[in-house]
Amino acid sequence: MNANTAIQLIQIRKQSSDEQRLKLEQELDQSSSVLLNLRTSYAELRQEIENLRSAHEDTFKQYLTVSQNWSSSKKQTNKLKLNIQSFKKQLVLYKNLRSHATNEVDSSSIKTFDVEGFVALGQKKIVQKIRNDFEHLYAQIYREMTANHEKEVQELQVEVEQAVHYQQIEYNERVMIQQKLESEIKIAQERLAHEKEVQINLEATYSELESEFKSIQVQKNEQPEVPLKERQSLQESIRTMVNNIKEMRQRQIVLERELIIYRHLLGKYEIKEQKVITHSSPPAQNVTTPALVTETERQGSIGIECPVDDIYICFTNHSQSKDADISGWMLKRRVDSKPELQYTLPDGIQLHPGNELRIYSKLGADATQSSSNPDYVSSSLYQKLVSNDVASWGT
Question: Which regions form coiled coils (predicted)?
Answer without folding.
Answer: 35-62, 139-198, 231-258
